[in-house]
Amino acid sequence: MQQKWQGYDLIGDVHGCANTLILLLEKLGYSKRNGVFSHPFRQAIFLGDIVDRGPRIREALHIVRDMVDAGCAQIVMGNHEFNYLSYTTPGRPGSGMPYLREHNRRHLRILNETLDQFANHPDDKRDFLNWMQEMPLFLEQDQFRVVHACWSQGHVDSFLKASGSNRLSEDYLHQAAIVGSYEWETMDRLLRGTHLKLPNGEEMISKDGFKRRFFRTKFWSCDPQYYVDVVFQPDPLPEHVARTPLSDADRADLIHYKPDEPLLFIGHYWCEGKPQALADNVACLDYSAVKYGKLVAYRLDDETSIDPNKFVWVDVRKEIASQV
């Protein structure tokens, strides 16, 4: 660890829940000094997805950016920051894309709260979009790694080679808008994770009412045999699909994060229940705060395996109930 910091506090997806974020920071021992939340000897690391869905997106962004600018925090880009950036960035002449992310009904539904809350704040919108483009995609130290959804070493290596750093260039942003390009695949893996296609052309209806042909998968499973061994999402697979054996092609599409690799912290996946490790060296910190779940942090010191006692959280539903 950097000598300045005695530990790190990794914080999951905020999604505009500014008041809950303040409660969590205070629970972790952070307090406002000169208008910025800070800790005397610890640094926060945000796992992305500060925007979208929640009631106080601008306020949450101000809290986080002020902490990052003051050196009290770090952040990695989430898929929702990437989506917002792409949605508002015009395509280049001749690209055939008015914007890098299509302005369709589904994308508008996801971004609607962010767009509405910035509608009367054009200066804030411009400043935050510029800041988002400068966000790292991942962080790596000897002890631990941080990425929003999935650590795929091959994609990390290729990104570093192409970009020369862990930050998104304007050229890379435009290339990543081309579906099927390696840049698009890299952003998809790091910010959205791994997935498999449902067998036999099947579809399932997710809880948000959309038809889906793919499902999110674990990238840390050891020797999985069936679809049920790798599914990792709130929506369960249909029973007959869950019992389907994985094919050789399915296995080739999976990524495996090995148990001897550094600690890995991710968000993104809408976990439920009591926060716990996914593997001895993998922890997801997204517990659906914006859907009245929990805003979760992990207090990292010098351990080399995930300690179940180091999770700290604010239970949003209980917090709301206590105020009624």
What does this entry show, briefly?
The protein is globular, with a radius of gyration of 19 Å. Helix 6 (153-163) crosses helix 8. By secondary structure, the protein is of the alpha/beta class.
Short descriptors:
324 residues; 11 helices; Purple Acid Phosphatase, chain A, domain 2; four-stranded mixed beta sheet; alpha/beta; six-stranded mixed beta sheet
Q: Quickly give the CATH architecture.
A: 4-Layer Sandwich
Helix % is 25-40%
Instruction: Provide the residue-averaged pLDDT.
Output: 94
CATH class: Alpha Beta
**DSSP, total strands:** 16
Characterize the main sheet.
6 strands, mixed
CATH topology heading? Purple Acid Phosphatase, chain A, domain 2
Order of helices and strands: EHEEEHEHHHEEHHHEEEEHHEEEEEH
- CATH homologous superfamily? Metallo-dependent phosphatases
Number of helices: 11
Question: Which segments are poorly predicted (pLDDT under 50) over 5 or more consecutive residues?
Answer: none
Give your account of this protein's structure.
With 324 residues, the protein is of the alpha/beta class. The protein has one domain: Purple Acid Phosphatase, chain A, domain 2 (4-Layer Sandwich), CATH 3.60.21. The chain contains eleven helices and 16 strands. It has helices at residues 18-27, 57-69, 79-88, 105-118, 122-133, 153-163, 170-175, 182-192, 239-242, 248-253, 316-323, and strands spanning 7-11, 31-33, 36-38, 42-46, 73-75, 138-140, 144-147, 194-197, 204-205, 211-212, 214-217, 263-266, 282-284, 286-287, 294-300, 311-315. The strands form five sheets. Strands 1, 4, 5, 14, 15 and 16 form a six-stranded mixed beta sheet that branches. A four-stranded mixed beta sheet has the order 6-7-12-13, with no helix packed on it. Strand 6 (138-140) and strand 7 form a beta hairpin.
